[in-house]
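Researcher: Let's try something more involved. This one mixes different molecule types, so please make sure each is placed in the same coordinate frame as the others.
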Amino acid sequence: MRLAWGLVAPLGLAYSAFFLAPLLILGVVSFYQDEAMTEFGTAQWRRFLLDQFHWKVIGDTLLLGLKTVAATLLLGLPLALVYRAASARWQRVLLFIVVMPLLTSVVVRTFAWIVILGREGLINRLVLDLGLAAEPLRLLQTELGLVISLTQIEMPLLLLPVLAVMVRIDPNVLDASASLGASRWRTLFRVILPLAAPGIAAGCALVFASATTAFISQSVIGGSRLVYLPAIIWQQAMVVAHWPFAATAAISLLLSVSAVIAVIATAGRIAAGRVEAPTHG
Amino acid sequence: MARRPNLGAASYVLVVGLLAALALLILVGPVLVVLATSLTDSRAIRFPPQGLSLRWYELLLDTVRSRPIHRAAGNTLQVAALAAGLATLLGTAAAIGISTMRGRLGRLMDAFFLSPLVLPGLAFGLAALVYFTLLRLRPSLELLVIGHFIVITPFVLRTVGASMSQLDPALPEASRSLGAGPWRTFRRVTLPLIAPGIAAGGFLAFMASVDNVPVSLFLSSARTDMLPIRMWGMMESTLDVRVAAVSGLLILAAFLLMLVMERLTGLTRRIRG
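Model: All components are placed in one shared frame. Result:
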């Protein structure tokens, strides 16, 4: 046991000094009354919380995260089902396709969507050539465009934990469900999804955390008309240099995102609890 | 048992199949679009590209006209190498230590060290900036290394932790009972068995550092420019076509590194967990 503590200690100390301490200091800074940070008080918190605009921004930010989670689930779960049923060889190919975007920079993936969604981009090219619209569609600087982009950017984060639980589902359980007369849809909703719930919840949490803090994607694809919390934090800290207010906004982001993630984790546990988990492997 | 008319089964195959196909398209398509765009001959970013040429790659490799990009790329690689090295060293030690802890304590430590994954990176980036500035430290590559190290260590903890949990405890025990000391057992038995996990974790940590935005956004400066931040600037202002060329090179590098790591460590299975 002493050896174990000795091995954990260096990282523990590093995390205390450079992870916990900065976050605590950030909390303290949010309670400075003024920009020059001379006296303590709740002025920044009052300024932040008593302004309806900030509540709207928090709501928009959380909603953006939830929409991204919903879209990644809609496309990602079917892919995970195909993966579960695929041969070992195809599983390797699919896994490679899922991991590949994860290892290409977020900025690169954001750039790709500018090319696809832009006025002279791929989608508008198709729409105009097929005569579906007379004018180019406006996709950049809309929330729809942003959610589509974030769906691709964040999907690998959902898929990895989901694929991990999918391969551990015992095929015999599914056979049993089918031979007892359950349709494939019923088997999906009553057997597969509950068994996969822990992985799905873990993936949703990662996607939500990443989408709500994706500053560059939000600002480049969303444009300046769509305002999310990361933009306020960045602008207050780096442009206005008002640290106490930036700290207040950052802690609000931290707390609201953590609250939603706690709800997701609880929902995952409840869904998983609906079946006894006869997994193998 | 009589089979029902298989309308349900057909609709299942159709819906799941179509959505999965769309998922694959949306995952792979953008990567191919970027590669095609980077080969354009025109000054504007259009799709399909107008004429094929390598002119933007040539301009990108020009040491005079693309110097700021080269410097940012150099900084990025330097920070990633140091931060990933640090993360691999401390992360591996901690993962081995945690794997011997039982029950609640081990889980608690795990959750604490993995928390940067679900914490808004932007909040930590700002916290690090405020903290270092209050300590009167000027922006430098060293501070970027520390900031990146914190957010990339979870990748090492996860892969090494998984390797440790798959390790057959009988092997180190056999080594000990044959008279090998703890250090010798570690070096000759445990370490070779978990080495692929360590390598995969180190690689993922390195890539995460190269990719990092939230920490670099706050800790980098004009002198310590980082590649993703510079690319953001290039996209915001004039939509420089060199962004496509940088992206093309990054995609190619990631693809080749991934093939190598897949061979050496079975990377993708380790990422999946």
